[in-house]
Amino acid sequence: MDFYELINLRHSVRGYNHERPVEKEKLLRILEAGRVAPSAANKQPWTFVVVTSENMLEAIHQSYVR
Question: Average of pLDDT values for 6-28?
Answer without folding.
Answer: 89
